[in-house]
Every structure is written in C-alpha cells, then in structure tokens.
Amino acid sequence: MTAGASPATLNAAETPYGTLAARGAASLIDLVIVLLLEWPVARAVHGTGPASQIVLQFLPALYVIGAYTALGGGQTLGKRWLRLRVVNAQGAPLSLGASVRRWAVSVGVLWPLWWLLPAGTELSMPPASAGCAVIALVLAVIALDSWLLLANRPSRRSLHDLAAGSFVVRRDARAPFPDATPARGHAIAGIVLAVLAGLVSIPLWEMTAVLAPRAVELARASEAIRSLRGMRSATAWPTFSASHADTAWRVMIYAEFSTRRPQGNAAADSVHALACRFARLAPHAVRGSEVAAVTRYAGEGTVPNGLLFTPDDMTPAACAP
Q1: Do 234 and 132 fall into the same domain?
Q2: How far is residue 321's CA from residue 313's CA, in Å, rounded to a whole number?
Q3: Are residues 195 and 233 in the same domain?
Q4: Which of 168, 199, 230 finishes a domain?
Q5: pTM of the model
Q6: Which helix (H) or strand (E) holds 235?
C-alpha cells in the first residue's frame, strides 16, 4: 500500500480486496455448480416429502461452509477460478463457526421463509404477526448486507463479512489488510434502508397469505397428475387476470400428454377433463378462477395449444362425467 493512502483512495492494483465484478462472477459460477450438483439429487429424492427439501437445502450450505474453512482453503470453486480467497484478519481460512455465521447472514437468512409455506392438508398459514416479523427480518438483513457490499469500498466488506470477521481478498494478498470498517455515513444509510425494507413486510405478507396456499395446493395437484397414465408433464400456478379496473384469479396450466391428439372435439374435452381434475385436487385455488390450459400432445410441434375456461366451466356440475 502506498504510504499515506487511505483505503478509499487505493486503486485496483494496490488494494488486496477482490473486486465487486470478480465476487459476482465467482458467485454465478458457484450457483451453476450447486445447480449441477443438486440436479441428480433432486431427481433421486423427488416426491419423498419434506426430507427431500431438507437435503436440497443442506447441499449448497455444506458446499459453501466447508469451502471457507481449512477444508476448502477459503475458496469455493468459483472463487478459486477468479483467484479470490475468504480469510480472517490473519489471512487464514475461517473457523467452522465463522464460516457458518457468514453463510447464515448471506444465504441462511432466507431459510425462515420456508416456515411461511402452508402446512398440512388444511394449508394453514402462520399468524399474521409472525409472518410479518419473518419477512421484515429477512428483508432488513438483505437490504443492509447488499448496501454495504456496494458502498463499503474498496473492501466490499458487507454484513456477512462483519459477522464472520472475514475478508474477500485476492489469492496473493497477505495480512494485515487495510481498514475495512464501513464509514459511519454508510452504516447509517444501511440501517435506514433496512428499516424501510422491513416496512414493506405488511403488504408482502398479505400477498403471501393469499398466494402461498393456492400455489402449494396447485403444486400438490400437479405432482399427483404427473403420475397419471398418459401424462408426460403437468404444472399449474396461480396468477391474476386484469381487465380495466377488474382483477380476477386465473390458474395457468401447462401440460404435455404422452398420447396422440384425439380427433375433433374430443381434444378440447380431454383438456377440459384435465382442468377439472385440477379443480377436484385443488378446489381452493381453482374455485371462482379462470383456467388457462396450455397443452401439447405427442408428435406435435413446438407451438402448444391453449384453451381458456371460465369459472362456470369449472363448477362441479360442469365437471361431472
């Protein structure tokens, strides 16, 4: 470091810290690696219930936590490729506890959101106060962490680094490192952003409380329908249909049949029967909703066919055999 130079005036060649671009590129590489690792596991545990979700969530956590300890030398594969290291103030890899704290603030903070998913056959949601508190906490941590990553230059030392006592440095950097404490103004601005982010938790919770039960119910119905003979794939999700000042619920269905398209009106009847099956398996989500079904049969081209059913087409009487 040049004598008398402050951390804010260090140029890219002098600072030991990794650049924002390098850190972002390393994170993208790690994301791709995690997805590739999870893909065969996801296929193996598909449909085995909550245990499968636990496995899929722990895999990336173990990958990141282990990489920043002595086991991984302070480098994920992405950071190794970009010639970066995550180290403590002495330039050594993090302890297990510090690595866990770093992961918990940067990624693990999202885990409480799983608690907001509807539970049981009744698709019950947590109390509104608890739901708002969880969303507020998650948004506040993300806002403060992201702000410090952008504003605390040149170290880019963010909330997850402060929690772990870690530094993201170039591979050839050596301790001790220049002061990387956020400026008071940056810290205050980050806290204000965190508070503002937390304030939007109320409308977000209201939206979550309405959308989540419908989405989970449709996901369960999709899984059941995919297992039926003659179905190659089936997915459904809730959305809105807006016309001028009116807004109505709409369920989107995308399905592929493993059979050939029936002749004449039988094709439309088979798609209606599929929509009615969703109505029986996901009554809360489909009741009173339009249903847009996009389907494709075996041997057809890449352009699927779409049909729109009104709420009247989805009543028990209209769906009766």
Answers
A1: no
A2: 13
A3: no
A4: 199
A5: 0.75
A6: strand 231-243
